[in-house]
């Protein structure tokens, strides 16, 4: 079947289409009903099916004869460690850890927060939760204690699983004090905290609450996977929205397993035995879908890499991993290769390694800028494939359908909609625009399997954010266009979300933090273009009349506040003090124009502006 025929079938007959894809996974009770429509136009996939996600990831591979094959290779240049686990070994460790959790009283439906660096125990903990039907919520290790506290209060976990430290370039970051502070700040108190001690930093335990990983599993008995309903949540993953409160994206078990398994063939053309490396972090959706679940659902060997593209130890790090583990498929964010290219523009490091095993390179998380695309193409001679997706969708909305037929790429485009995603570009009234015209990128309902089922604990927020803005559609929050050949170009967010080094952050949240400073009268934060990180946040701040703080001092305090509340990954380093902010007559800050000015782009003066002279004042700050 060609891509176009497969796509058409997925849109015309979604239930038959996905029913067939559902055959690719081992159900405990296969579904008879493929889709059930809900009142809000959204729906549940495979509502009467039962399965266990950990069973599909591990036990099913053992049943298929892959027990002795490597399931996971841990490669950690920051500690000088490499360790591999066969499917049998990983299953055994997961089953024991799951048994220990059950003995601790953690059962189906309980939430468990995992706040860990990129070590095998993070993967073991995720799969163990899935094995007993507990709902995991992984929090990226770069988030500060406050962010963790917000997630604890929202998910109300029974347990937190953590490690004594994470390791950044030449720097050990102690996690346990952050966990302790977060629990102190949160209103909800988890019953226990399970701590994996790493030799780089030993953490102390809180008596009566904390347990060391090794003691926790010492007398535990392995447990079998429990059946869960297709619609039961597998995980909650928080992602930035437009306010300080992150959204808990809820992923089901059944739709997720079917969609992720399908995507491994469609998008990545991966087969059992392939070595699959998603160079991301388990704290992000890429890590969930393509470090943990996708490769294991497919019988691949997945790489868990605790390091950076550069400085661990150099810009050859990625090529070294590809050679060492004979990686077949590599997936990362464009920013990673921008970092490599900056340090090694002629790709000299690449020639030190044999990357002959590598078949294709995939990029997502932010727009793949044409220079990075061209550089990779020129130096690797491999297919370089952009694909567009979001935490909410869990897999690619648009991709080059490599598993069916790889089509010609167009630089700057994420290629075609994946089967199941009826992508449309709409004007502000919700009417489709002509080919080549920019608008809001939306997906006509129903969404295919694998996408979010709701926002944790807040159906109204799910409805208002994603479904209400354009009735009958899922609003992606991205703007873009579809050209006359059907190629989709994603040009950037239309809301207050920015992408910093492939990390999704909320400018609205940064504004809330900055506005809480006693000397700040008003502020706005925009994402300004950055050569390496794609975007970096930039604050424009008005000082209160009578405030005595100097501009330098205020900037330093604001930078510290954002770092302290969100974490270092926010990369908030610059606050410009201004006299006025450009606004519409109704008082709305004109962020888009400010962004264009900051980026040195041409801008047109909006007709709704209150006082056009302010734009000139703002420009002065960027030219001086
Ligand atoms: N735990 C604690 N701190 C972390 C962290 C973690 N897991 N990850 C990042 N940080 C810290 C960094 O140490 C840095 O701190 P600093 O300001 O004190 O130096 C800060 O957060 C910013 O980190 P980062 O944006 O990663 O910048 P960097 O200069 O260290 O590295 C890149 C730049 C491009 C190499 C890096 O961002 C990268 O590899 N990006 C790929 C992103 C990715 O995989 N995204 C997932 C989507 S596919
Ligand atoms: P996240 O939820 O962290 O995966 O971030 C999702 C957002 O990243 C999307 O809404 C886009 O704005 C951006 N994004 C991801 N992949 C791409 C891509 N291939 N091209 C352009 N933008 C992308």
From TrEMBL:
Signal peptide: none annotated. One of its GO terms (cellular component) is intracellular organelle lumen. One of its GO terms (molecular function) is propionate-CoA ligase activity. Residues 67-444 form the AMP-dependent synthetase/ligase domain. PROSITE patterns: AMP_BINDING. Gene3D superfamilies: 3.30.300.30, N-terminal domain of ligase-like. It comes from the Bacteria. Residues 3-54 form the Acetyl-coenzyme A synthetase N-terminal domain. Residues 509-588 form the AMP-binding enzyme C-terminal domain. It holds the Pfam family AMP-binding. Belongs to the ATP-dependent AMP-binding enzyme family. This is Propionyl-CoA synthetase. It comes from Marinobacter zhejiangensis.
């Amino acid at each position: 079947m060609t891509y176009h025929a497969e796509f058409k079938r997925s849109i015309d007959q979604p239930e038959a289409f996905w029913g067939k894809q559902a055959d690719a996974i081992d159900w405990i009770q296969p579904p008879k009903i493929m889709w059930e429509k809900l009142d809000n136009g959204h729906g549940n996939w495979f509502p009467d099916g039962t399965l266990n996600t950990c069973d599909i990831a591990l036990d099913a591979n053992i049943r298929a004869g892959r027990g002795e094959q490597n399931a996971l290779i841990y490669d950690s240049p920051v500690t000088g460690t490499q360790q591999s686990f066969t499917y049998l070994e990983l299953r055994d460790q997961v089953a024991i850890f799951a048994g220990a959790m059950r003995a601790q009283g953690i059962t189906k439906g309980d939430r468990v927060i995992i706040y860990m660096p990129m070590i095998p125990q993070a993967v073991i903990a995720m799969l163990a939760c899935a094995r007993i039907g507990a709902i995991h919520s992984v929090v990226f290790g770069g988030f500060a204690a406050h962010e963790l506290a917000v997630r604890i209060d929202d998910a109300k976990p029974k347990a937190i699983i953590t490690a004594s430290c994470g390791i950044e370039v030449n720097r050990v970051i102690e996690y346990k004090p952050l966990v302790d502070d977060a629990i102190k700040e949160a209103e909800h108190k988890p019953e226990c905290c399970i701590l994996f001690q790493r030799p780089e930093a030993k953490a102390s335990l809180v008596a009566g609450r904390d347990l060391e990983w090794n003691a926790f599993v010492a007398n535990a008995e392995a447990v079998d996977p429990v059946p869960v309903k297709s619609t039961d949540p597998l995980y909650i993953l928080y992602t930035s929205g437009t306010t300080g409160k992150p959204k808990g994206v809820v992923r089901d078990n059944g739709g997720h397993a079917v969609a992720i398994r399908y995507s491994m063939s469609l998008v990545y053309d991966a087969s059992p035995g392939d070595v699959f490396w998603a160079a991301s972090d388990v704290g992000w959706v890429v890590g969930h879908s393509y470090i943990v679940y996708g490769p294991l659902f497919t019988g691949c060997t997945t790489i868990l890499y605790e390091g950076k593209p550069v400085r661990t130890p150099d810009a050859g790090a990625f090529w070294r991993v590809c050679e060492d583990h004979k990686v077949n498929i590599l997936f990362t964010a464009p920013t990673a290769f921008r970092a490599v290219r900056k340090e090694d523009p002629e790709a000299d490091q690449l020639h030190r390694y044999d990357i002959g095993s590598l078949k294709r390179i995939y990029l997502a998380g932010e727009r793949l800028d044409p220079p990075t695309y061209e550089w990779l193409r020129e130096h690797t001679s491999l297919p370089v494939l952009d694909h567009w997706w979001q935490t909410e969708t869990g897999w690619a909305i648009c991709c080059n359908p490599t598993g069916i037929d790889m089509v010609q790429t167009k630089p700057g485009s994420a290629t075609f909609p994946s089967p199941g995603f009826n992508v449309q570009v709409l004007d502000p009234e919700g009417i489709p625009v002509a080919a080549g015209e920019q608008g809001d990128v939306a997906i006509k309902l129903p969404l295919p399997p694998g996408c979010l089922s709701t926002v944790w604990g807040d159906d109204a927020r799910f409805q208002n954010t994603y479904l209400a803005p354009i009735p009958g559609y899922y609003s992606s929050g991205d703007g873009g266009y579809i050209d006359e050949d059907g190629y989709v170009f994603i040009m950037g967010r239309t809301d207050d979300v920015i992408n910093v080094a492939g990390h999704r952050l909320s400018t609205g949240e940064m504004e809330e933090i900055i506005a809480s400073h006693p000397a700040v009268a008003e502020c706005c934060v925009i994402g300004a273009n950055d050569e390496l990180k794609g975007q970096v946040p930039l604050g424009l701040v008005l000082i209160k009349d009578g405030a005595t703080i100097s501009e330098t001092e205020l900037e330093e305090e604001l930078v510290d506040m954002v770092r302290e509340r969100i974490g270092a990954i926010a990369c908030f380093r610059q606050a410009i003090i201004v006299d006025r902010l450009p606004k519409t007559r109704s008082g709305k800050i004109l962020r888009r124009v400010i962004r264009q000015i900051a980026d040195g782009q041409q801008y047109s003066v909006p007709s709704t502006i209150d006082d056009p002279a302010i734009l000139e004042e703002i420009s002065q700050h960027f030219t001086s």
